[in-house]
Design a protein that fits this description.
CATH class of the largest domain: Alpha Beta
Structural class: alpha/beta
Helix content: 25-40%
Number of strands: 15
Strand content: 15-25%
Largest sheet: 6 strands, parallel
Shape: elongated
Oligomer: single chain
CATH topology of the largest domain: Rossmann fold
Bound molecules: magnesium ion
CATH architecture of the largest domain: 3-Layer(aba) Sandwich
Strand order of the largest sheet: 5-4-1-13-14-15
Number of helices: 10
Order of helices and strands: EEEHEHEHEHEEHEEEHEHEHEHEH
Number of domains: 2
Radius of gyration: 19 Å
Length: 275
């Protein structure tokens, strides 16, 4: 029996917008998961708005667009949201034209620069915030400067809480690991922008101009996608192509509104309901 048969699916009739996770939901590494093109065709055909939203802050929006569209989808840059965008907006609103020290890669750097925020190197002056994202060339120097700036009163901001990131080599350290190191060193807790916190969900709904009750979050992780979507007041759909499944729903005690094995099954169920 498919997991979805245990759920009541009527709520889908009231859904007009979706937030959609990327890794484990749309893609696994460099592969498209089943139903990707069908799913976007369905959303477009029914005028459902959507935001593809990733907790990963290393890639640029254009890199994500290219990666997903390579499989035949037709996303615009405006359909994509990463926690880099959310972080840049947060800093821009709180410290307009401000200065930050950054640990991170091109995705985060691009978002901050486009928001008019100045990124300084080393200890060249006082900064408003230390912004930390995933960084595959993390060094002792970077940890040292970030730590000194936080001790001097800069706000400590993290793009996402994920400790590990799945790659071809296995699970490798992500942003969360750096946040733990800096928190231990400074005894200051970071403000975290990505899922499951509210910032990203709120920005996604604001961009689409929709309310939580008409929005569903589709993702593969219970603690981030599903828990975060629920906290934001959205309906939630777990897809079993990534980290979690019907068994972990029971063991972790986080209950989505629907569990589907992949995007193809979701499209089939939704189409059947609208017939
Ligand atoms: Mg995921």
């Amino acid at each position: 029996m498919s997991s979805s048969e245990q759920y009541s699916i009527e709520f889908l009739q009231g859904i007009h917008a979706m937030m959609i996770d990327i890794d484990g939901t749309l893609l696994r590494g460099n592969l498209a998961l089943p139903g990707l093109v069908e799913f976007f065709n369905f959303l477009n055909a029914h005028n459902n708005q959507f935001q593809v939203a990733s907790n990963n802050a290393t890639k640029t929006l254009a890199a994500y667009q290219q990666k997903i569209n390579a499989f035949g989808a037709n996303l615009s840059i405006d359909n994509i949201l990463t926690c880099s965008t959310v972080t840049a907006l947060y800093v821009q609103e709180k410290y307009p034209g401000g200065k930050v020290y950054m640990i991170g890669q091109s995705g985060l750097e691009e978002a901050l620069t486009q928001a008019g925020i100045q990124i300084i190197t080393g200890m060249q002056g006082k900064v408003d915030a230390v912004v930390v994202g995933g960084d595959y060339s993390l060094t002792y120097e970077k940890l040292k400067f970030a730590s000194l700036h936080i001790q001097q009163g800069a706000e400590f901001i993290g793009t996402n809480p994920d400790l590990l990131y799945p790659t071809d080599e296995g699970l490798v350290p992500e942003c969360g690991m750096t946040l733990v190191a800096l928190e231990t060193a400074t005894q200051v807790k970071p403000v975290i922008m990505g899922k499951p916190n509210h910032f990203m969900f709120e920005l996604g709904m604001k961009k689409m101009g929709v309310q939580p009750y008409e929005t569903a979050m589709l993702g593969d992780r219970l603690e981030t996608d599903i828990q975060g979507g629920q906290n934001a007041g959205m309906k939630t759909i777990l897809v079993e192509t990534g980290v979690d499944n019907q068994e972990t729903v029971i063991s972790k005690g986080i209950q989505p509104d629907l569990v589907v094995c992949d995007m193809s099954e979701l499209v089939a169920i939704w189409k059947e309901l609208l017939r």
